[in-house]
Amino acid sequence: MKSRAYSPLSLTLLGVILLTVLWTVYWFGFQSSLTLLRGAPRGEPAAALFLPKDPPLVMSLFTNPQKLQDLRQLRTPLRQRGQAKAEFRRLKASLLTDTNLEYERDIEPWLGDEITLAVTTADLDRDPKNGTQPGYLLALEVRDGERSREFLDLFWQNKAVSGRELRFETYKGVKLIYSRQTRPPTGDRLQLKDFNPFAKESAGEWSSALVGDRFVLFANAPEVLRKAINDAQVEDLNLQHSPTYQKAIARLDDQRIGIILADVPQLSGWLGGDSVKPESQLPDTLAIGLGLSRQGLLADTVWTSRNDESTVAPELDHPVAALNYVPEESAVVLAGTDLASRWRRLSQAVSGGDLLSRLLTQPLGELEHRWGISLQEDIFDWVTGDYALALLPNADEDGLDWIFVADDPPDNHSQSDAAIARLDEAAAANGYSVGPFTLKDQHRILAWTRLMTKEGKTSEGNLRLRLEADVLGVRGQLNDYRLLASSIEAIDWAYTSPRRNSLLANGQFRKELPLLPQENDGYFYLNWQQSQGPLRQQLPFLRVLELTGNPLFDHVRSLLLSTEGHRNGVHRAQVLIKLIP
Fold first, then answer.
1. How far, in Å, CA of 412 to CA of 426, rounded?
2. pLDDT tens, 478-494?
3. Is 402 helix (H, G, I), strand (E, B) or coil?
4. Bridge partners, 512 (sequence order)
5. What is the reported pLDDT for 143?
């Protein structure tokens, strides 16, 4: 038998193919932006060295923004990639509005794989009598020291040309550059331009330093930079060596591309509220690990409190059955089990008079006052099984209806009937009557209504009065579930959802559930695409968030959150933010 000879050309082609395969595996396994789905190479900010042990807020990204854009391009359909590039270009340009800087020319060549922004203190001089001036520190990792020095030279040359008086200082071997302060402290109002050293209105008050060709530091006052340099040189002073910080980092999932850390009492003060009282059950420390999945953005969230050492097992190991009565078109959904116990724990946590507590308790207090009821006694106490509360666009699409579904087995009827009777009494005290009627000749429901006169015109243009029913709410029962809703249309949705398309039967929702822990306390679901219109009308501050968060908000499809009990005072939650191309 003759041995087969291989020509040089065939060997060359084989070598090229082999090298191509190996390079492809290497690129997609180690160099491609797809590796971000497994997390960034680092798990905590190197800039923690420059931060105090207890900063009110720290936000860090562990990858170069260009890698995120590259990943988005890979996940975006070909026809939409041009639009995606344009959006990213506009986002970069917005950071440098009214400056002579260009991101691609002046920042991208030297920017490394970490961006950290921190509120280092709620008030620099800790004297509330003269207003509050928070301390801000922005740390940008350097990959090319020479280019970063050129950038800083250009940055400050532009300020000098615009009339700023520059000052130079060498502090413990580090060169600081800053300008004379030209505006007073911000007072108690949080202003977005305070976060951006490149913004025209604030850049003159910022200070900069290049530390060892490793980090470019920006701060809104030179004393913040001096403190950062001190903290870096004394281990016991910086965040990197804080036991609280190390515990928080250790509890987070490893597959992350960024983190958010907050000292909740200080954060409340920075936001303009009162300090959290020592006896408060609100958390002391909040840590969020940000990761990526093919479904969207994952946020692994952990919080602890010095006053809480309790252990509570997760309440559920199966999907909430009450979601069978919630339509898939719902904008906002809250679902779980044993609302009575959950409300008691929540009431204890928000019993303080601080800002964060008031944000939760005031709306509920106003609701109780308007209806003349006690939410705990008249609704929450009898709900010991599955429940779901849903908000959905109303028939006119100019507001939100609501549906409340609660498991109400026969042995619970005495308690639930007594609570419903109290709701009837409260409705009657406000001028509403309780009347039964049949919904679509199938379901007997009761409505709280009152007759009102309204003016109208005849076809001839003459004035006429007519009677209209003002519906406060409706209620009914299906199987072992008690149904309450704000309108006839809403309760019809609840009755027909098990036969039509409920949220629990929705394929997209069911695909997202496995990304959350199987044992959990229930869900909070926000369908942003369905809810943004009505929610803008109900919550005006969302318009501000959209303006500051664009184009991110344009690509949010939904948000799904679930908590999973707590052990020895350590609480945990998972958040999935579903994104669209």
1. 22
2. 889 999 998 889 999 99
3. strand
4. none
5. 94
**Structure tokens of 253?**
């999932």
**pLDDT higher than 80, residue 274:** no
Strands 332-337 and 443-457 turn out to be unpaired
Is the bond preceding residue 363 a cis peptide, omega within 30 degrees? no
372 burial level (CB within 10 Å; 0-12, 13-18, 19+): middle
pLDDT digits (tens, 9 = 90+) for 278-301: 555 667 889 999 888 877 888 999
C-beta separation of 481 from 407 below 8 A: yes
Instruction: Return d(Cα 137, Cα 120) in angstroms, integer.
Output: 7
CB-based contact 515:293 (threshold 8 Å): yes
Residue 267 pLDDT class (50, 70, 90 cuts): confident
Q: What is the pTM of this model?
A: 0.81
Residue pair 324/502 in contact (Cβ under 8 Å)? The answer is yes
H or E stretch covering 231: helix 222-233
Q: 3-class SS at 255?
A: coil
40: tokens are 């960034």
Contacts of 533 (CB under 8 A, 6+ apart): 393, 397
Q: In this model, does residue 19 exceed pLDDT 50?
A: no
Q: Kindly report the backbone phi and psi dihedral angles of residue 487, in degrees, each rounded to the nearest multiple of 5, phi listed first.
A: -155, 165
Q: End-to-end CA distance of the chain, in Å?
A: 60
Evaluate whether 449 touches 431 at the Cβ level (below 8 Å): no
Residue 338 Ramachandran class (φ > 0 left, ψ -120 to 50 alpha, else beta): left
pLDDT digits (tens, 9 = 90+) for 166-197: 899 999 999 999 986 544 444 444 454 556 66
Nearest by Cα to 46 from 204, 215, 178, 165: 215
Residue 535 pLDDT more than 80?
no
Strands 258-263, 57-61: pairing is: antiparallel
Q: Locate 118 and state its tokens.
A: 């921190």
- Three-class DSSP labels, 62-93: CCCHHHHHHHHHHHCCHHHHHHHHHHHHHHHH
Please give the pLDDT value at position 38: 75
Q: How many residues does the chain have?
A: 581
